[in-house]
Structure formats: structure tokens, C-alpha cells
Design goal:
Blueprint lengths: L11 H12 L6 E5 L6 H13 L9 E4 L10 H11 L9 E5 L7 H5 L2 H5 L5 E7 L7 H4 L3 E4 L5 H11 L4 H11 L3 H9 L4 H12 L5 H31 L8 H41 L13 H9 L6 H16 L4 H11 L1
Parallel strand pairs: 1-4, 1-5, 2-3, 3-4
Length: 354
């Protein structure tokens, strides 16, 4: 084997299972990597693909990767039909071809139906890996034909060590970041890269000051956050556009340019979901910290230790947000986002409920 999973943090059982699969040469034709976002599903899939293809190259003619596309961030029926055709074509170099479908749950029913025959009559020369944080949204007929491999949040201690290898921070600060990341390496990286996250400051300051008690205050906060998210996405758009175009000549055919633009749109749509989830987690962390102080819990477990004074003052004012109510409101906001409701509307509706 050309590489191992030793460099990946967490999910050791998955490492052992996939390694045994390779050693015994009993590779499942269709697999579902299911688990929360940011715990390494994509990295595991790419490492496993290189093992199957017996290559160290990140780009290989027998590795096919599909991501949600377009303004609604969904897998189109066109791309899924293309996938179904490519599955039955012979490999170019390796013994098998590997197909990785990111966010496999993000496809409309007619796109998913286009895959049914592929899973019912799989090609012996192809390995399909679906990645999903919401496997319950996949068609039952697809689920039943995939070998499900469950991924779990990264252990707190492992996440703390990871944070300290990425950046020289004290253990207590690394621990606080790990609590905020909630077992997600992706979220930990995001927090580290945006250490002075303006959206977090806006949200926590508004929760601490009582600004959200009025509709005008909610509108002001939503506007400021939306402006910050737009700036962040603009930077991300430039980076992904540069990355996607760097391997191509300047005289790229119009059809391929169009496909890349759809990739960029899909990336931006998914990043909005990521940023929204981060905002929801900040709100939830505030409510969780209030509950911790309310029961005289260990202050070392605060997710926002830099706001301990503000949290104590908020608790003294009697502003305790019921976690069950908040979690239900967040679930509704996430569902609205999945239905392509603009972020500002979802956030405004959520803040009005709390």
C-alpha cells in the first residue's frame, strides 16, 4: 500500500476497518461515509481512493470527484447522469476507478433516481464513496446498497493537540477552541484562521447587551453579520476560482469554463451553509454557557471564557435561553437554509425567536 491513515486525526476504528479491507482485498463497491461535518470524511475518502488506485498523486485519471453545483448547491441530474455513464467505462490506468460524491444528500429526487440503476447493478471495476452528514435524506434504495461507515466527532484531547500543533496557544485557550469546535477539525481550523472573528464578536456583544430585544436591534445585527459573511465569501470565491483554473490553459473551452463556474457557485452555496452553522453554534454556545453558570458548573468548561463577565451579567438579568427551544429553532433555520432561504432571513427569524 502506498500510504496509510496515520496522518489523519481521530476515527481510529474507521482507519482499522479500511486498512483491513485493503489487506484482505475485499473492497466494497458502494460505501457511505456518514457523520458530522468537519470530522475527516473527505480526507479519509481521498486517502482510501489513493490506496485503491495505488498512487500518491492527488489528481489521477481514475479518480472522479463530484460536488454540489450551482446557486442552490445541489447535484444536478446532468452531473449524476454523467456519473452513471462514467461508472461503467473501463479504468484508464488503475485496476479500478473511484468515485467520491460530496454531500450526497444534496440532490433532488429526480437526480437521486438517476443513480438507482448504478447502485442496483454496480460495475465491478468501480468503487463509489458517498459522503454525507445527513444520510437520512438519501433514498432508502441507495442507502440499502451502500456499506455504511460511521464517523464520529474528534475526541476533545485529540482536538486540543491538533490545535496546539497548528498554532502556539496555551492549553486553556486550545481547550476553549476545542469546545467551540464541538469535535470538528474543520470548525477548529475555521476558528484558528478567523481568530478575531467579527461575526462572533457581533453576535456575542448583541446577546450580552440586550440589543436583540428590539426588532430594529435584530435587523442591525443581521445586517452587520451579513456584510461580514459577504466579505468572507468574496475572499473564498477568489481562492477557489484560482484553484480551479490553475491547472487549465487560458484558452479553456466555453463548456469547461461553464462547468467550473458551476463548481464555484456550488462551493459558495455550501460555504454559506458552513458560515450559517458556525453562527448557530455561537448562539448555542452562549445559551450553553448560561446554563453552565446557572447550575454553578466548572467555569473551565465555558465555551466562551473571554465573555465570562458578560455571561454572569446576563444571567443576573434573568435572561436564560431554554436549550430545547433554541435547538428546535436552530433546526428550523437549518432546514430553511437547505431550502435555499437567504441566510439573512434565516438568521433574523432565529434571533426573533430567542
Amino acid at each position: 500500500m502506498v500510504n496509510t491513515f496515520a496522518d489523519i486525526i481521530g476515527n481510529d476504528r474507521v482507519k482499522s476497518y479500511l486498512t483491513r479491507m485493503m489487506e484482505k482485498e475485499k473492497i466494497a463497491q458502494s460505501m457511505l461515509f456518514a457523520g458530522p461535518d468537519g470530522v475527516g470524511k473527505s480526507l479519509f475518502a481521498e486517502y482510501f481512493a489513493r490506496l485503491v488506485l495505488d498512487t500518491e498523486k492527488q489528481h489521477h485519471p481514475d479518480l472522479h470527484i463530484y460536488r454540489p453545483q450551482g446557486k442552490i448547491g445541489m447535484h444536478s441530474i446532468g452531473s449524476m447522469r454523467q456519473f452513471s455513464r462514467e461508472v461503467y467505462m473501463a479504468p484508464f490506468q488503475a485496476k479500478r476507478k473511484v468515485f467520491i460524491i460530496h454531500d450526497a444528500h444534496r440532490m433532488l429526487s429526480y437526480s437521486a433516481n438517476a443513480l438507482l440503476k448504478t447502485f442496483e447493478e454496480p460495475s465491478l471495476a468501480s468503487v463509489i464513496i458517498l459522503l454525507s452528514s445527513s444520510p437520512e435524506q438519501l433514498l432508502p434504495t441507495i442507502l440499502s446498497r451502500c456499506q455504511k461507515i460511521r464517523f464520529f466527532p474528534i475526541e476533545h484531547s485529540d482536538l486540543v493537540r491538533f490545535i496546539q500543533t497548528r498554532k502556539d496557544v496555551p492549553s486553556d485557550k486550545a481547550s476553549a477552541i476545542a469546545y467551540r469546535a464541538r469535535g470538528s477539525i474543520g470548525q477548529a481550523v475555521r476558528i484558528l484562521e478567523q481568530e478575531n472573528d467579527p461575526t462572533r464578536e457581533i453576535l456575542l456583544q448583541s446577546l450580552a447587551s440586550g440589543l436583540l430585544r428590539s426588532y430594529s436591534g435584530v435587523q442591525q445585527v443581521v445586517k452587520e453579520i451579513n456584510e461580514q459573511v459577504t466579505i468572507l465569501l468574496k475572499g473564498g470565491e477568489e481562492a477557489i476560482r484560482s484553484q480551479l483554473f490553475q491547472d487549465f490553459a487560458e484558452d479553456l473551452p466555453a463548456v469547461q469554463k461553464h462547468e467550473i463556474e458551476k463548481e464555484v457557485e456550488g462551493y459558495l452555496t455550501m460555504q454559506r451553509v458552513v458560515e450559517a452553522s458556525a453562527l448557530f453554534d455561537i448562539i448555542l454556545s452562549w445559551a450553553r454557557d448560561l446554563q453552565l453558570l446557572h447550575v454553578n458548573g466548572n467555569k473551565n468548561l465555558l465555551m466562551n471564557p473571554d465573555y465570562e463577565t458578560e455571561l454572569t451579567q446576563a444571567l443576573q438579568r434573568g435572561k436564560l435561553i431554554p436549550l430545547e427551544q433554541l435547538q428546535e429553532a436552530i433546526s428550523e433555520a437549518k432546514l430553511a437554509l437547505q431550502r435555499s432561504t437567504p441566510l439573512e432571513y434565516c438568521l433574523e427569524n432565529l434571533l426573533l425567536k430567542i
